[in-house]
């Protein structure tokens, strides 16, 4: 997958969709993934919050890792803020309540060679 790119239109993640922020890649930290749009949908809570699931997995367990889920109301690099963090070297599935229009993953740091997959679910 390409890095974060504000000039490319993001793919939309509707309820039930999955997107690969990183797909068996070896990005050089710190690096942000491609972004995904979260369209407004019927059935959202009054404040438009939604439960997002995200999963990290590795081809081999790194010695240390820091992967974050970031969200933003505007698709601009400076607008993204961290809403959840994973440091589990074995990979894990996490959930976060998000009130935003855009999502991405960011590999903050990684020690040890291993390819990374981050899956986002709306």
Overview of this protein structure:
- The chain has 122 residues and is mainly β.
- The chain has one domain (11-121): Jelly Rolls (Sandwich).
- Helices cover 0% and strands 50% of the residues.
- It is built from no helices and ten strands.
- The two termini are 19 Å apart.
- The model has no long low-confidence stretch (mean pLDDT 90).
Descriptive tags:
Jelly Rolls, 10 strands, globular, six-stranded mixed beta sheet, 122 residues
Number of domains: 1
Summarize the main sheet: 6 strands, mixed
Assembly annotation: single chain
CATH class category: Mainly Beta
Low-confidence stretches: none
- Give the termini distance in whole angstroms: 19 Å
Approximately what portion of the residues adopt beta-strand conformation? over 45%
Per CATH, the architecture is: Sandwich
Q: Considering DSSP H and I runs of 4 or more, what fraction of the residues is helical?
A: under 10%
**How many strands in all?**
10
CATH-assigned fold name: Jelly Rolls
| Secondary-structure element order, N to C | EEEEEEEEEE
Total helices: the number is 0
Query: Rough shape?
Result: globular
- Structural category is mainly beta
Averaging pLDDT over every residue, what do you get?
A: 90
Radius of gyration, CA atoms, in whole angstroms: 14 Å
